[in-house]
Amino acid sequence: MILSRINRLVLRIAISLALAIAILWAGAALWIDGPESPVLAGTLAGGLVLLAGLSALMVRPWRRAVVAVFVPFAIVLGWWLTLAPSNQRDWQPDVARLPTATVDGSILTLHNVRNFAYRGDQAFTERWETRTYDLDTLVGFDLFISFWGPTAYGHTIASWEFADGRQLAVSIETRKEIGEEYSALRGFFRQYELYYVVADERDVIGVRANQRGETVYLYRLGGAPSTARALLLDYVKEINAISERPRWYNALTHNCTTTIWHHTKAIGIGPTIDWRLLANGYVVDLAYDRGTVDTGLGLDELKRRSDITARARTTGDPEAFSRAIREGLPPRPDHGAASAVPPAR
Questions:
Q1: 291 torsion bin: left (phi>0), alpha (psi -120 to 50), beta (else)
Q2: For residues 143 and 287, is the Cβ–Cβ distance under 8 A?
């Protein structure tokens, strides 16, 4: 009898906690994604939380109170799921053009590859290019991690290396409108469209190391070229899909790292969910455990030698950027040392 009462109490506490979180989320959704008027949005959000609180305190029996609290949450959730992303907004110049791609045999052609020349973070000369790559000459896959502050979380960027010495970088980011700034809180709601920056490394890596003052690491990953090719083609599939049907960015489920994890899962090589996919400053620790980076060095030494920030800041020749930042890097593991490419923000 006592055990049964304890179990019921635990169940009630768990349900009450889940409903409290749900109502707080619904209030935040109304505040952030609701009416443009802050007064109206705040009134709706506050009213929802107040209504739920009064229902929890006053409605009896307890089961009816649960229903009374759940119903407004369900209504808000239903409305929130109808919010649709768009490709037609007043975009900032660096995300103004959507990349697209075609594949003809082994030849990959990419349109709107970004290759800006930066004088400052927001001062640049625009260059959008069409580039072709021979997929048969793919060498492997690399991973950049860039930090702007605490190292528990950073921004991950994928890059594919070809035998002719060229690289193709893809950074999964938010597509911001003119006057819009990124907010980590707003990133959990439907505020930003998902955007794949297809770019020259000198652009997407150089701007972070130089104009933004970030610390950048580059890790060369193991895995057969066929695996890197399959991953790139899955990226291409999504890039083309977004050009026709936009997607929402989400700071938890579809950010720079978890989206790459979705790509690795799509081609059958992704690891099971791991906390380091969310605290992505430790994603190289995950790769080290899986043997997809050079494990001939200790992890701390690997990280130290993979810091390319100084080279990225001192390389004067734009054409030599990718080659210069790879000088002295730990080598790419043998193809047989790892059977999968680990995920990367």
A1: left
A2: yes
Token pair recorded at residue 237? 């599939």
Give the mean model confidence (pLDDT) for residues 10-28: 94
Give me 142's structure tokens: 């690399």
Please give the DSSP secondary-structure letter assigned to residue 292.
Answer: -
- In whole angstroms, what is the distance from residue 204 CA to residue 232 CA? 18
- pLDDT above 70 (res 40): yes
> Distance (Å, rounded) from C-alpha 111 to C-alpha 6?
62
DSSP-derived secondary structure letter, 333? P
Mean pLDDT across the chain: 93
CB 189 within 8 A of CB 45: no
- Cα 322 from Cα 201, distance rounded (Å): 7
**25 CB neighbour count, 10 Å cutoff:** 16
Nearest to 109 by CA among 11, 209, 236, 196: 236
Q: What is the CA radius of gyration of the chain?
A: 23
pLDDT tens-digit map of 269-280? 877 888 999 899
- Closest to 256 (Cα-Cα) out of 203, 308, 182, 330: 182
Distant-in-sequence, close-in-space partners of 264: CB < 8 Å, separation ≥ 6: 231, 270, 271, 340, 341, 342, 343
pTM: 0.91
Mean pLDDT of the 114-143 span: 95
Closest by CA to 166, choosing from 191, 202, 207, is: 202
From 66, 203, 201, 184, select the one nearest 126 (Cα to Cα). Answer: 203
Q: What letter does residue 164 receive in the DSSP assignment?
A: T
